[in-house]
Amino acid sequence: MSLMLIVEESVICEEINLEEMSLSSKSRGLCEVKVKTGIEKTKDALVTTTGTVSLVRMSFVFDSNFISSHESLISPEGMILEIMNCSFDSKQLMEEEKVAFAYVQFHIIKMDNGELQLDGCTISNLILHKSILYLSSSLLSTVDSITICNSTISHSLIEIIECGQLKMDRFNTENISVEGNGESLISCLSMKKTIQLTNCTIGGVSSNTAKGKLIKLENCTDVKMDSCIFNGNSKERNEKNLNEGEEMCRWSGSLVDVVKSSLIMKVSTLSNSPDGGVTMSGGNVIIVKGEFINNNPSIEGYSSVRRNIICTDSGTLNVMSLKGGDGLKDNTSLWMLNEGCSFEGIVSERDSSFFIPVLESIEAKEEID
Fold first, then answer.
1. Model confidence over 19-75: pLDDT tens digits?
2. H or E element: which one contains 346?
3. What backbone phi and psi angles, to 5 degrees, belong to 235?
4. CA distance 14 to 152
5. Can you tell me the distance from the alpha carbon of 131 to that of 115, in angstroms, rounded to the nearest whole number?
6. DSSP 274
C-alpha cells in the first residue's frame, strides 16, 4: 500500500494523521498509508490548494470500526488531481477469511473547480453514506476504467453539479444495494458542457428508487452515451406484480431519467428492468442502434408487456435505428408510451408507438348442419 505524491509549486496539505504516520506539507515521494482511526485537525483528509497532485498505486483500507467526521477524504480546490491505479476497500479479516464492511460517512473525492483524472481504480466492500465522487464547478473530469462493486449506498455514487466537460469510459458497477428511498447511481444537474459515457456497464443494483435508478440527468444540455449497457435487477422481476390501482400501460420508474435534458444514445442496451428503461420529462432524446430487452413488469396474464420508454411534458423522442430487442422487426411493438411528446423516426412510423397486436394463429371450426 503505497502513496506517491507529485506536487508542483504548492503546499500539499495541512498536517494530518493516518494511523501511525504523519503526512505534512513537506512530504514528497513514497510513503505507506493505512486508514484506520481517522484524521485530526482538518475538515478533509487530504486538502490541497494549487498546482498538481498525482496519487498512484495507492490503497486505502478502511477498518470496520472506522469513524470520521470529515466531509471528504481527498478534496483539492482549483487543482489538477490525478488518481491512478488506486483502490478503496474494507479490511479483510484474515482469520475468518471474509471482509468486514466499513461505514464511510464522507465523500472519497470532492472537487470544486480544478481538473480531475481518475483512472484504473476499484471501490469495493464499503457502506457509503455520501457519494464516492462529488464534482462541483470543475473544469474537466476524465473517469476511466473504474469498478465499483459489493457495496451499499444511501446516496448517489457520483454527483455532478454545474461542471465543465465530463468523460467517462469503462465505468462498471455490480452488486450494489441502495438503502432507504435511494438515489440514482450517477446524478448530473445543470450541466452546460458535454457529458460523454462510453463502453460503460452499469447495473447489478438493488434499489427502491423510482425514476433513474442508474442515471438521472436534469437540465443537462449535451449528453452522449455510446456502447453502454444499462442493466436492471432481474431478481426484482419475480417480486413484481400488478398492485391494486396500478395501470398496466403506465409506470413511474426507470433505469435512466431524463429531465429537460438533451441525450444522444448510440449502440446501447437497456435491459431487465421491470420498472422501465427510460423516463423523459421535457428535453429531447435521440436513439441510434438502440436495444431494449426484457424490460418486463411480469404482470400475471400479460407476459408480453414491456416498459421501455415513457415520455411526458412535451419532450421529443427520435428513434433513428435499432440493433436488436423489442421493435426490431417491422411493425412490431416498441413499448414506448407517448404522454404529450413529439415522436420522430421509427417510433413515429409504426401503427402504434406502444403496442401492436400480432396474430399468432388462426383456428377454423367446421360447422355441422
1. 333 333 333 333 333 333 333 334 455 544 456 677 777 677 776 665 566 677 777
2. helix 346-349
3. -65, -30
4. 31
5. 18
6. T
